[in-house]
Amino acid sequence: MIQFTEEDLKQLAEKGITKEKVRNQIQIFEEGIPFVNLVKAAVVGDGILKFTVREQKGLVNKFEEAKDGLSLLKFVPASGAASRMFKALFNFLEAYDPAKESLEKYFGRTNDSDLKVFRDGLKKFPFYETVMDRIKGKTTHPGEELYLFVKEMMSEDAMNYGFYPKGLLPFHNYGEHTATPFEKHLNEASDYAAVNGEAHLHFTISEQHIDMFTKEYGKINERLRKATNTVFHVTYSYQKSSTDTIAVDMDNNPFRNSDGSLLFRPGGHGALIENLDEEDADIIFIKNIDNVVVPKAQEELTNSKKMLAGLLLKVQEKAFAYAKKIDENNLTAIIMSEIKEFLENELNVRFVDKYSSFSIGEQIEILKDKINRPIRICGMVKNEGEPGGGPFWIKNSLNHVSLQIIESAQIDMSNPKQVDILKNATHFNPVDLVCGVKNYKGEKYSLLNYVDHKQGFITGKTQEGRPLKALELPGLWNGAMAYWNTIFVEVPLATFNPVKTVNDLLKPTHQVS
Which residues, other chains included, contact 11 with Cβ-Cβ below 8 Å and sequence gap of 6+? Predict the structure, then answer.
């Protein structure tokens, strides 16, 4: 067992991490994290709902009729830095010297296809004019111009885009101004997450970027307020230091830095379940910062969000009524059967085979436990080859079957049967959630009670040139929500436009005109 030094204990106290938590995490490294057991892919008709146009309108109307009496919140994970988005540009700056070779020779030598796409689409980027104004008159040939363009974007003493949070980069060009994802999310919220002209948004960001977000909000708030007739209430939080995880060496001993201190690493987006747990609203919309749309797709996006929220309200009504009956002990055999059917058919809950052999009291306790859970409605888009997790039926170590969003890293790729199931997946997860986090009495669930801690990830990293193993917490929409009641719904592909690399901004879905 790990023996902590006085310095270790001081370090733990500063981070708000207990000795028990560190020991539990080391135990996870020692035991390993088993792959998930896929039963089958969730498809339309078996785990994924698909609504007709008429049904969609009905759900949209349900939400619109109810929303003025509800509290709504848009929760946006936004701590991602833009450095990965510009990987190809950083590589170009390292590999190319305009004084020594022409651009064509560089392309012939490296076959840098990403940079070719970037060069060919240069004028379509929303930051094109800004950068060109800054380097005007400084270049003599095309290779030097492209090099200086990229250098101006990326250098620390220039525009320093690599340091920016992704949410504050210019994504869309409207002529008179460019819009960041941050602005786009505010704009979106006015369409589907506003009540009586007020919209509440919460962004999880890196602490180092708070001044940048505050400054941007000050710049755009008045213009947006007038354009949308909406008052915005924006709050921020940071990933907590107490959610960092211990790193270990290859023998599962705590990894120590050269100064002897323990190495802790950020726990990944799963840590944000703690931030989400501190928010309070009747309906919470969750969407990633880099997934935004241009105006021509806005109406389709808005209707899709309202449809998901309408479905949440519809199933909540029934769940709340049944939960109340259970609490009031107002149950007959027929009502118990109704509740079980509702859980199975509408909330995708699966019961163990021996459920019918349990006593009435035991059955009531099971029904009570299963109906009193947070509910998540998850939009799913048709799989068009984009990377990302997908919807599956899985079986855990206790043989309990449930619907989950699973990442490929959780799947045993050496098992042909599991790979076959993965290949049968028709949809993937765009991170498009509408969440109900309260019970029928209006009391908020403690979301930390519904995490499957065995759905984390162990990854290999290096520090100071030495190999180590790192632990990622169960992802926010993966294991962190594993014990929620879950419904998957097909949503239009047009609602999913992530920007993973800078060249994604060239796609028609990110061109305003």
Answer: 261, 262
> What is residue 248's three-state secondary structure?
strand
Report the 10 Å Cβ neighbour count for 248.
Answer: 22
Which two three-digit tokens encode residue 458?
A: 């162990």
Instruction: Measure the CA dihedral 174/178/180/186, to 10°.
Output: -50
Q: What are the tens digits of pLDDT across the range 73-106?
A: 999 999 878 888 999 999 999 999 998 998 999 9
Residue 297, Cβ neighbours under 10 Å: how many? 17
Q: What is the pTM of this model?
A: 0.95
Instruction: Write out pLDDT tens, residues 114-134.
Output: 999 999 999 999 999 999 999
Burial class (CB in 10 A: 0-12, 13-18, 19+), 50: middle
Please state, in angstroms and as integers, the Cα–Cα distance from residue 460 to each residue in 75, 163, 463, following that order: 30, 25, 10
Burial of 49 (0-12, 13-18, 19+ CB in 10 A): middle
Q: What is the pLDDT of residues 405-421, one digit of tens each?
A: 999 889 999 999 999 99
What lies within 8 Å, CB to CB, of 200 at 6+ separation is 71, 72, 73, 74, 189, 193, 233, 235, 281
Q: Which SS3 state, helix, strand or coil, does residue 10 take?
A: helix
